[in-house]
Each structure stands twice: as structure tokens, then as C-alpha cells.
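REQUEST ID: PR-0412
SUBMITTED BY: lab tech R.K.
PRIORITY: routine
TASK: structure prediction, single protein chain
INPUT:
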Amino acid sequence: MLTKRIIPCLDIKDGRTVKGVNFIDLRDAGDPVALAKQYANMGADELVFLDISATLEGRPTTLEMVLHVAEQVNIPFTVGGGISSVEDVDALLQCGADKVSINSSAVKRPELVNELAEKFGSQCVVVAIDAKQVNGQWKVHLAGGSIPTDIDLFEWAKEVEQRGAGEILFTSMNHDGTKNGFANKALAKLSETLNIPIIASGGAGNIQHFIDAFKEGKADAALAASVFHFGEIPIPELKKELRNHNIEVRL
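STATUS: complete
OUTPUT:
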């Protein structure tokens, strides 16, 4: 049985870690490099860094931060935000990133998924999908959730898998920052539809929510931010509780 992964997510804006609710009302959560080191020492399986304003500001992810993180951690980390070309990815990997996360750029030019998978391998390509339930339908949103589209979550996830994506990072905008639990029905449907790992994101508030994401949502990994940043759920305690519920994790 493959172990389930716990992944702290650091949303970066102006060099600081920030966290909001439903993608707005951001507040400061600390220095990203210091937090990264802390999470690696606490037993996080991977880290995700999202430069959340890069796409809106029309610029690439800050390479300097990636270099500093790579110097401090010994676990895999994924970087996203403003990535739109093979050259962008090459620069990030050379600075020490293990994977990249693409979102808006993949929707605007789906061939990018193929290009990155062919050049760097599927294991390097994470496609992040921010989706919102609108009138009962899950619709993809772009640019940090600020631009709605008519694209169906499940159809888009299947397409990027066929194009070579190695993982899907699905964030439910309805659940993000609410601490009411993950979108388990949508997660389970994604898991049944796809053959690649699904990372659950949006809604973690307590340990039971992680248990439900793995058992009901059939997620392969669970990602969270504020519950880790503000010390509400210590990662070692979370993993012990998951193990107590027969969910295989790396302790």
C-alpha cells in the first residue's frame, strides 16, 4: 500500500507566507524559508510553494526564494505561480525545485502540459486546478481563483492526465480556508476518474478532516496551510492519528 502524504502549502506574496479565506482576506503567516525548514523537521512529506500573485502580476516565480528553500530542506518541494514555458521550469529545477505546479497557463495553452511532460517527465508536472461548485457543477477558475470559466473540473482533469500530468492538485474554492473539511465527494469522483495521484486542498480544520479526505475522498495526499502555519494541528500528532485509523503514513 502506498503511503498517504501530508503537504504543507505556503502561499507566497511579496516574499511572505500568507493565508486567506475563499482566496481573499490575506494575512501574514511568516517567513517561507523558516517555515519550510520547520515543516521538513516536523515530518512533512513534501512542500508546495505557490507564488500567488505571479500570474496576476505577469511575472515568473521568484527564483531566489526557491534557492533558499532548497538549501534548507531535504524533502521534495513543488513550486507554482507564473510558470508558462519550458524555460521557466528549467530555471526552477536548476534552483532546486523537484516539481512544478501549473494552473492558469495550462488552461490557456494545454500543450504546455505535453511539452513539460516530454521534457522533464510526468513525475515533475503537477497540474493545479482551482474549482468552484456553481449551480451543482464544478467549474475551473483561473488566476488565483479570480477568473471563472465554463470548463468542467472532471473533464479538464482527465484531459491533463492524458497530456502527461503526473499529479492533480485540486483546491475547492468553496472549502478553502473555511476549516469545514475537504470536498470529499468531488475528490472521490476525481480518484475514480483518474489513474494519477490526487492531492486534496481546501478546507482542513481538524484531524478528522484529513482522515475523511483519505477514506471518503480517496485522496493520495492532503495539503493544508493555516492549520499548520498557526500551530493548530502539529504534523507529528496528525500522522500518529492517521496511523491509528489504519491510514499508512511515513512517521
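NOTES: Confidence is low (pLDDT under 50) at residues 21-25.
REVIEWED BY: pending
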